[in-house]
Amino acid sequence: MATGNAKKKPVGKMFVMGLISIALYALLLARQDEVNAIFAKGGWYAFLPIITAFVFSFVHGNFTGDFWTVLGVEAARKKREVK
Amino acid sequence: MHDIAAGYINLDAITILYLFGVGFVGGLVSGFIGSGGAFVLTPGMMSLGVPGLMAVASNMCHKFPKALVGALKRFKYGQVDVKLGIVLGVSAEAGVLYGAGIQEKIKTTFGDAGSNLYVSVAFVVILATVGGFVLYDAWKTYRSGNANTEEKAGKLAKWIQSINIPGTMVYFKSINARVSILFTIPLGFATGMMAATIAVGGFVGVPSMIYVLGAPSLMASATELVIAFVMGLGGSLKYALHGMVDIRLAMIILAGSLFGIQLGAIGTTYVKPFMIKVVMGVIMVIVLFSRGLMVPVYLSQLGLIDKLGDSTVKLLKTSSFAIMIFALLLGAFIVLRAMWQGKQAEKLQHAAGALEHGEV
Question: ipTM, 2 decimals?
Fold first, then answer.
């Protein structure tokens, strides 16, 4: 059944991103009181939640993307024509 | 900021799982139709004891990174019109600020009940007209047997595309025509106002891109993610300046919604374009009933009708929330079912192709 053009699944990358993602979430929850106190200050500190959101979305977004790829859930091979 | 610090709820395993789960379903729907989930997430967080403004702020702070990931994914499928998304997104930002100002005025003049009534009436009116039309259009496409053919711009869109206002014309690839930004600005503005009022700008943004500008459904729903990113980023910054974002809540919802949005985006490559309209229309019409149930509660609080009993108010509130969750779950179910059917059809096609070429 193996097709010649079957792509290699990003198992290694998924695990690396998954581990970083878990570490980020563990850190956020372990230090939640300090994080809340700093982020509630507002003003220039407003950039902290924004940066946090970008960092989490990059790491966790890569992980979740690879997660579905590794499970075999991928976009239709023949893309629908959209003009 | 002491009063805000008091608004941080304790996170136990059940709360985390609940936020993750709602995030996942909301993300799945967003990945598919470009928006959704926020109308359940904000009241969902409030039901956990999160103050209203903090719930809105935290929802917004999960929305923009989610929309970014979804937009990037759908960009790979060639479905995103970045230029249209940014043009609409910037005017939507102005709409958000204006909408928030109106909300503020209504709140100071008529109190919480007045503000809630305004939101609910906006929900009911917009969802009844736009949602009803979207669903009717999807039904018409399904009945006509043209579900597989390429979508064509409607009469209104063709008329808009035919108007040439020198100095304001911009070419958009999703529409494959030049359109005056004097038409896109009010559409973006209305999308932003809706986002500030009912938390889901996409219920106006996506249908207006399809019916007013003439963009195909797949591109409209993908481009909405760019608008949501622009609006969400600006909105989050505004709330974060006042220290309103509970980053824990935002990131936990994001954890679930990024699984969902990837899946929803993949789903769009398997379905017929009119399915976007089906999912959007179904959710809009069901949510309309959910908000409609709350109208008598607010009317009674304002003294415009006889006072309702406590048990009646509780029943209406619970039913309203349950219907909203049902709307989101049904939307997710339709997405997953359509995706499954598309995948099965693709498998059959490949098997048939292999037989034809004598590979089996």
Answer: 0.90
